[in-house]
Design a protein that fits this description.
mainly alpha, 8 helices
Length: about 180
Amino acid sequence: MDFHGPLSLQYAEGEFPEIARECDQKEEFPGHLWKKACRLGFVGVFIKEDYGGPGLGFFEHCLINEEFWRVDPGIGLSILAATFGSEMIQLFGTEEQKNALLPPLVKGEAITGAAITEPDAGSDVTSVITRAIPVEGEYIINGTKTFTTNGTTASSSWKRIAKVLKQLPSRTSWELGRPKRRS
């Protein structure tokens, strides 16, 4: 499939302009465009075939991103950020985690959420201090976040992620010591 040019640009030019201003003004996620982009194979192109994706790469993901942003950066980001962070699951997750979390992203059944940005750390992940502490089979999340990427749209996937988190080994970075802030 030729994601660069004809298909991804044609999709963006045909769909984004008529709702871009409204999405910006109302601060709304274009869910119907995201679903359609999933059906057309534009979302999660780097996800391996074993997990429901086309098994392409980040180069193809970047090409699609460029064409979407060429038409409207806000909608382009909204659609493609639906898989933000899934590359870490694909690279470092267990088979059970990959099978549970990746296919729904490609199918348009789930959206990832990421709470990275903190008041004193910005988006520097090496300086964040929020921790998930295992307590009696659950996790207590302790810290402050400035915002959560896809926080208002990722609700359907949070339950699935919470279930997977419960299956992680109990040894966490918290047990290794609280990280020091960089000066």
